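Why does residue order matter? Because the sequence determines the fold. Keep that principle in mind as you read this record.
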Amino acid sequence: MKIAVPKERAPGERRVALVPEIVAKFVKGGMTVAVERGAGTAAGYTDAAFEAAGATLAPDARSAYAGAQVVVRVAKPSDDELDGIERGTALIGFLAPLADPASVARYAPRGITALSMDAIPRTTKAQAMDALSSQANIGGYKAALLAATHLPKFFPMLTTAAGTIPPAKALIIGAGVAGLQAIATCRRLGAVVTAYDTRAVVAEQVKSLGAKFLEIDVGESGEGKGGYAKELSAEALERQRAAMVKAIGASDVVITTAAIPGKRAPIRVTREAVAAMAPGSVIVDLAAETGGNVEGTVAGEVVTSENGVTIVGLLNLPSTLAYDASRLYARNVQALLDYIIKDGALALDPSDEIVAGTTITGGAA
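Structure:
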């Protein structure tokens, strides 16, 4: 079996779908891995490292695709990037079937079996394949660092000859994977951390990290299927937003991570809440790519509100830590391929929960 790894061409994407460590494991298992030259350069992986791992270096994507049964990538491909992928090939990557359903229609006419890494069920059995979680961990970590960088204060309490500096107060909104990592990182940096989530079940996880859980009664649960958050009713959202103004206004740092699969990100921080914060305060909006949790977020930019609050809406934070992000993603891909390859060939059983959940076009055994 041949696996092809093209260079990512989406703006700002520095990750690579497989790293030399994982390539070596596939090659040892009897597979051929073709890597487009320069595919790992932006992430810190040289062509020489791939070659040493046993990969075949291809001069371009089309050459890598030739004869491949599997193409693995990070970002969803453009129409041009699909050219050259042969019929019957399995395409694996973050294909965003919910965020961009129209793009799904491109695969079936080309005879491509598309498996989306952001559609893998969040079950114990599929945990090693959960690329959304591995990359969200990185996003939460980087969000805390961005907050510390932009805040004109120390995060930890400092006692000096010139007096004592109180610790920064951080509020994390959304205690999923990214939120929990943001909590842990802010705590390590020395901030006093409070967290809020519509799912009361995560309160114990928040407290186990040394943070306080902010309880707001919105009259309904925000827990949806598969461990994801669900969209609240308009009435519940209004109660939540009103209660959040006070908590946000008392914070030096706010990190928002709330996302609903396939939907616009819910507003968690209103203009009223931003106005309640002190000048110099910082908000990092991890949901900027899907509309933002903050009124005033500008996707891809760092802006300052009228009252001097910095709102960070930078995109694709995992890509800014491309070396380790690629390592984790490659392990997720390896776990999926190990699961669906039997006796050197793809074995896609449509009755299998993981296969059915991940496959968005094709998928016949």
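The longest strand covers residues 70-75.
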